[in-house]
Amino acid sequence: MDSKSKYLLLVMGLLIVGILALTYWQIMVKKNYIVEAQTDCDPSVQKCFIWECDPSSSEEGEACTGDAEKDTWYYSIVRRNAGQIPLCDPNEESCTAFVCGENEPECEEIFCDEETRKAQGVVCSNPADHVQTTPVTEEENREQSNLDNTTTSSESQAGASTP
């Protein structure tokens, strides 16, 4: 091997090692990549994507349970820079792993619209339709009743203290 070939081989080897080191730095140290996740969405307020169980599936998580609430899931999509995601358990209430901060760069929550519906190949929810078709649960009735009682008692106390 002549000296030109050795130098060329050395330069190529250094370039490969440099590229590998830079890639490792970007991905493993800086976490400079985007994470996309599906998160819960409130269909009475937002236009959510709708996932429904597969009746012919036997795979855990995709098969139907017979409970309409468990067989349908409303979700939105969150894209966030991995370097901004805190290290916490996403199942905990206090974990904000997939919540975008105010004016946070490289973070977006995507709701269902005509363009994303076609791209994802799913069905969208309509908040107006969802409120009309979803019955109010007993717990929601109790909460509303408690709010009404609190408001009424506050008003009567305010009226009683007036001369």
Q: Give the tally of β-strands.
A: 5
Radius of gyration: 27 Å
H and E string:
HEEHEEHEHH
Distance between the termini: 107 Å
Residues in helix, %: 40-55%
What is the count of helical runs? 5
How large is the share of residues in beta strands? Answer: 15-25%
Largest sheet: 5 strands, antiparallel
Mass-distribution shape: elongated
Q: Which structural class do the helices and strands define?
A: alpha+beta
Give unreliable regions as ranges: 147-163
Averaged pLDDT, please?
81
Brief summary:
This protein has a domain at 29-131.
What's the topology here?
Blueprint: H1 3-29, E1 34-40, E2 49-52, H2 68-71, E3 72-81, E4 107-110, H3 114-120, E5 123-124, H4 127-133, H5 138-160
Explain what this protein looks like in three dimensions.
The chain has 163 residues and is an alpha+beta fold. The chain has a domain at 29-131. The chain contains 5 helices and 5 strands; from the N terminus they run αββαββαβαα. Strands 1, 2, 3, 4 and 5 form a 5-stranded antiparallel beta sheet that branches. The longest helix has 27 residues, at 3-29. The chain starts with a helix and ends with a helix.
Features:
single chain; 163 residues; alpha+beta; five-stranded antiparallel sheet; 5 helices; 5 strands; 17% strand; membrane
